[in-house]
Amino acid sequence: MSGVIKSIVLLHGNGGPGTIMQTNFHDVAGEPVKSAKHKIDALDIEKGNSKYTIIEGAWLGDKIESIVYEVKFEELGNGGCLIKITS
After folding, report:
1. Alpha-carbon distance 63 to 57, whole Å?
2. How far apart are CA 45 and CA 3, in angstroms?
3. Helical H runs in the chain?
4. Above 90 in pLDDT, residue 41?
5. Residue limits of the Bet v I/Major latex protein domain (predicted)?
6. Fewer beta carbons within 10 angstroms: which end of the chain, N or C?
7. Which of 73, 41, 72, 44 lies closest to 54 in space, CA to CA?
């Protein structure tokens, strides 16, 4: 249930590369994940590509320093799109 977002707070930047945001999740009994901070590394709206790094909280624990995600939206031509996420 950690995917239930409560709020997203802009901590630094304007939404482009270098921006740091915090995603807060609803409190759910037994769920250890309360929030995650991430940094936008790259954003190309025209091509439908983005790259961001989880830098604090969430699923990092004490063994993982960061998680990098690359997200690509590809138009399918029928009004839909295919989303590819690499971490």
Report:
1. 12
2. 24
3. none
4. yes
5. 4-86
6. C
7. 41
pTM for the complete prediction? 0.77
- Reference 23, options 42, 46, 39, 1; nearest CA is 39
Tens digits of residue pLDDT in 27-37 = 776 666 788 89
Distance of CA 12 to the CA centre of its chain: 15
Q: Which of 37, 30, 47, 42 is nearest to 12 (CA)?
A: 37
Residues 6+ apart with CB under 8 A from 1: 26, 28, 31
Q: Please say whether the beta carbons of 36 and 56 come within 8 A.
A: yes
